């Protein structure tokens, strides 16, 4: 975490510079020297406020997660609490559109995703993000399905989000948000129909 007292203007400046350097040379080659040059600051500022490269990388990851959380929360607040499928689509939107779909952000996400397997702090951030996504989905799904079914479908949607996002990030054409919506909603509709038909058959 950045030390208290760092000018607010510096944090987004350094986060943006970090993503630009990762985009250009990759995570492992993204040195403090390159990032400080990109941001137009001295290496001493990064070392003082972030304790070096790792602290800056962690703050960059936190900022990406904050943006994702804020986007989804804002969209959910704008929807009626009983518009469950619309709210699920808002959760999907937050992962595929706007800030998260920007090229530098997507490449940084991908770099952190692989790096987090070997770094406890980044792994913890990734787990927090995963739990938040599943929690958002289960809240909406539990109004339409049993708790056990909601759990299973939430994991299915989360897996589709991750898989489609990964394929889109590796694709030179980028992420196709419309195709992501179509695939995930097709899965959701089939799951809702399947569980509804099972209930009908048991009651008949």
From TrEMBL:
It comes from the Bacteria. Residues 8-68 form the HTH tetR-type domain. Keywords: DNA-binding, Repressor, Transcription, Transcription regulation. Gene3D superfamilies: Tetracycline Repressor, domain 2 (1.10.357.10). Pathway: Amine and polyamine biosynthesis; betaine biosynthesis via choline pathway [regulation]. It holds the Pfam family TetR_N. Residues 31-50 bind DNA. InterPro entries: BetI_C, DNA-bd_HTH_TetR-type_CS, Homeodomain-like_sf, HTH-type_TetR-like_transc_reg, HTH_TetR, Tet_transcr_reg_TetR-rel_C_sf, Tscrpt_rep_BetI. Repressor involved in choline regulation of the bet genes. This is HTH-type transcriptional regulator BetI. The lineage of its organism: Bacteria, Pseudomonadati, Pseudomonadota, Gammaproteobacteria, Vibrionales.
């Amino acid at each position: 975490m950045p030390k208290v007292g760092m000018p607010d203007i510096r944090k987004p400046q350094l986060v943006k510079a970090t993503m630009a350097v990762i985009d250009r040379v990759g995570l492992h080659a993204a040195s403090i020297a390159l990032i400080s040059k990109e941001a137009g600051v001295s290496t001493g500022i990064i070392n003082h406020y972030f304790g070096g490269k790792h602290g800056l990388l962690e703050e960059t990851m936190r900022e990406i997660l904050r943006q994702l959380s804020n986007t989804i929360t804002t969209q959910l607040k704008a929807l009626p609490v009983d518009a469950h499928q619309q709210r699920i689509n808002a959760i999907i939107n937050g992962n595929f559109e706007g800030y998260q779909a920007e090229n530098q952000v997507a490449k940084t996400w991908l770099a952190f995703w692989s790096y987090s397997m070997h770094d406890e702090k980044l792994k913890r951030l990734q787990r927090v993000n995963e739990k938040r996504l599943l929690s958002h989905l289960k809240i909406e799904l539990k109004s339409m399905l049993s708790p056990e079914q909601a759990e299973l479908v939430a994991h299915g949607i989360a897996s589709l989000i991750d898989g489609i996002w990964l394929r889109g990030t590796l694709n030179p054409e980028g992420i196709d948000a419309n195709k992501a919506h179509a695939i995930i909603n097709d899965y959701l509709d089939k799951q809702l129909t399947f569980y509804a038909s099972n209930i009908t058959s048991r009651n008949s």
